[in-house]
Design a protein that fits this description.
The structure is a homodimer of 310-residue chains.
Chain A: E1 3-6, E2 11-16, H1 23-35, E3 44-49, H2 52-57, H3 72-75, H4 85-97, E4 108-114, E5 120-126, H5 130-142, E6 148-153, E7 169-176, H6 185-206, E8 214-225, E9 238-240, E10 257-261, E11 266-268, E12 275-277, E13 291-301, E14 303-306
Parallel strand pairs in A: 1-14, 2-3, 2-4, 4-7, 5-6, 6-8
Antiparallel strand pairs in A: 5-7, 8-13, 9-10, 10-11, 12-13
Helix pairs in contact in A: 5-6
Chain lengths: 310, 310
């Protein structure tokens, strides 16, 4: 397989607080601002508190989930009196870190997130981004304190909606379980290790290291399942079943317990064999998602290295 | 020891949603409304969604923490245009379930709460209420699926501030760990068992059962500890240490790790030997409380039974 060449990662951005109640990223930024200051590197490092208003009130967002606002439509929408804060802020961030798809965009964005689901350390990347997938491969090789998995989204580039899509390359670092509005040292430490290793990778890449290709295991986002709800009020009729709770990335088969009604009855999963993730993520109740579903596949990565400057 | 006589528990109230993002109680009420309807009993059962506005927006409160609003001062304060919703609602609840201290007050209130702390099933009662303590003793004897502990508050009755204080007798049923805004079936099932057993106890009490006294172990709330904070900004300088996290009710000694700074340094506990609880409760960040501290003591309960009606 051929070796792909990419420009150096000259500008790297670490973003946190995209969701204001996911606290590891918020505190990580403050720590990075101290510990990474004046450190000599082959790249410039920017830290960005993505949604300061949501951080101030410790909520996911103030008017609109910002991590769904980085669409072409919203990024180019004219601002009016009723434009939600998060759309305005997404446009600002596109100016700061992008514009998306342009030569001016930063080379690599790592956006820091937490989940209430028992997902360990997940890297979320786009199917088209070999750099993001190589970063995952490096983290998986280096980090042994928790499972490290890769979730791939296959949306067409024209439908990208999340912050890390502003960069030439980008990943979301998603770590859980942690309640929203709470900071757990174990989860913070795991995220810290991921961030340190990601910066180490960028440094190594820029210095000319050839990152060998090879097979990786990926979870491809293909579906989602809502809670059983009252058809009239839309209120929940059941919770995630104890046998499914905390079992993200364990194969779910038709007939397996999926939900438990409030009187104690088991409701079984109906659907094809898939891998659940984001199981009982608190922010997804309002998005009609009890869990997302993935296909597990093997993917062959090409080797990559830096394109020497002329 | 003498046997104390109490009037029958003729009116029992189960309250949930006092904090709108503690979801077990909210869904328990709906289930009780169906399952307990038309069931013959020696008492009338009322279910009360205590803070419906906070439940609607899935937040702890809208303007003011309602479970601090049941003070004599706030319950008797005149309503003005700037009276917070929660104060108005607390006054309404005092009319519905109280008035506190009067003959009209309901006999027993169980208020349902969740915590992000790893506290299992806790009964919180007032030092002056033998009925609440006997209810705990019964639950501890009957429930084997999780640790059941009793937390006692010793505030003078004139300084009571929480909902269950409206009744002649009252307990808070506190179950965790569960993220706020999330419903976990295991935590729900544990709370459900506690509610079912509490109703069973009231039925048995009314029928004339003598509940024998004896020694119980109690945790008496005596102190609290805040996070290390930046003196200027008041922002956190550290998180709960991994060795303390999830270890509620394990003796904390001077020199034990209590916090971990964001660069990884351990900060040790300074203070007397006490039992921490509400460790890393999400709602307490804004109340300057990293954890509360208790003395563990033995307490001798008198026997109790119902006073036969004339």
């Amino acid at each position: 397989m051929e070796q792909l060449l990419f420009k150096p990662m000259s500008r790297v951005a670490i973003c946190g607080g995209t969701h204001g109640n996911e606290l590891c990223g918020v505190y990580m930024l403050k720590e990075l601002q101290v510990s990474q200051q004046d450190r000599f590197r082959s790249f410039s490092l920017t830290t960005v508190l993505a949604n300061p208003r949501a951080v101030d009130v410790c909520r996911r967002y103030t008017e609109k989930d910002m991590n769904r606002c980085f669409t072409n439509t919203l990024l180019s929408a004219p601002r009016t009196e009723v434009t939600p804060y998060e759309v305005t802020r997404a446009q600002e961030l596109n100016g700061l870190l992008g514009p998306r798809g342009s030569e001016k965009a930063v080379d690599l964005i790592c956006d820091l997130h937490n989940t209430t689901a028992n997902m360990g350390l997940c890297i979320i990347a786009h199917f088209s981004d070999w750099v993001g997938m190589h970063l995952f491969k490096y983290l998986q090789e280096k980090i042994t304190s928790a499972p490290v998995r890769l979730i791939l989204f296959k949306d067409p580039p024209s439908e990208m909606y999340s912050l890390e899509s502003l960069g030439k390359h980008g990943i979301t670092i998603e770590v859980g379980p942690q309640p929203h509005g709470v900071l757990r040292a174990d989860i913070y430490n795991l995220m810290r290790e991921a961030v340190d290793r990601a910066l180490e990778w960028a440094e190594s890449f820029n210095s000319g290291t050839v990152f060998e290709g090879g097979e990786i295991e990926v979870y491809i986002n293909v579906d989602k399942k809502d809670y059983p709800r009252d058809p009239e009020t839309q209120e929940l009729n059941a919770a995630i079943h104890p046998q499914l709770q905390d079992n993200d990335f364990c194969l779910l088969k038709p007939g397996d317990p999926a939900f438990m009604s409030f009187s104690g009855e088991t409701i079984c999963y109906e659907g094809e064999e898939l891998y659940p993730f984001f199981v009982n993520e608190g922010a997804y109740y309002e998005q009609n998602t009890a869990f997302k579903l993935a296909q597990r596949e093997s993917l062959l990565l090409p080797s990559i290295s830096v394109k020497k400057q002329q």
